[in-house]
Fold this protein.
Amino acid sequence: MKNFWKNCGHSLLALDANGQMRVTDSFINSYLDRPEIIPVSESCESERTLHYELKKNPRKPVSASCISELKNPEGRENYRHLIDFRNRLIRLNTIEACYLNTFKNKGVDIPPVFLNEMVQIILRQVLNCSEDAMQLRAAEIFFREQQVIIEDGSIMLGDASIVKLLSSTAGLGSLGELLLRTGNQPKKIELDVLRREASEIYWERDEKFDMVLDITFGRAGVDALCRVMEGWIKHMLGVDAVIQPVQKISDERWTWHIGLDVESTSLLNDLYEDNSVTDERMADLLSLFCLEFTNPTLVDPRISGRPVYLGLCRRRDGLLRFKPQNLLVNLPLASKS
């Protein structure tokens, strides 16, 4: 079994009897070593004391008045977010429960960085025994923004932050920046596309996030994404589902759909309601999927036996921001009595 995403914090957690990831002191402690939290030379005595005491006891209660004593405004803000997140982790006990609890009420009040980190950790557990590099790369879509590149009919996804960095320096780092400042354009480079026949390369670069995934219909990348979505639903909700890509929705009894991002939610709503949709918006539709439940008794009786359609769209700026919570909170499951 291969190790991957070693720095995501997964190894600091412990599995409970239900296979959920229980929060440990070591995991909480890891947040105290982040650059935004660890004291620097300018830190006040109150901040140093707070950090020292939390390192000794990561679960130590911290009051709002204690945080207000910190002199640095940015430090106060960082600690407020951290302590609030830590308190939720302690109260809910597992990463999975903390993630699901975030979406129980309207308005998400956890910083996106914490949400994305929880998603990565959960997917690290979902894919724990996987040796399929294509699925690991597909899972990155869940917690890292993607740049959509469409060339010759192929739909490619590259990590947005990496694409931005490399496009500005051609991958030459400080040398590339120097060339730009002197008026010389760095040589254009191309990112590697992950191929099934050469997927071993991923294991050498799993935390660089610099591989491109081809999610064109009928290719391995989109199939890998389906398997990851199935695993995500199974782990988080205990529900078995089969997801397959489709090219269009030809269903006169179309009953339920879920957008996997803001844009696809809006587009599918309009298509479902038979509203006019421009060709420009349709061109932003990257993928469609059909989800079917293995056990129909777990589904809302009003739509039992009917498939759920999923959509994936790019934004107008070419970015894709996947919302994995939609696959959990918007599923038409039967109410628990």
About this structure: Residues 221-329 form one domain.
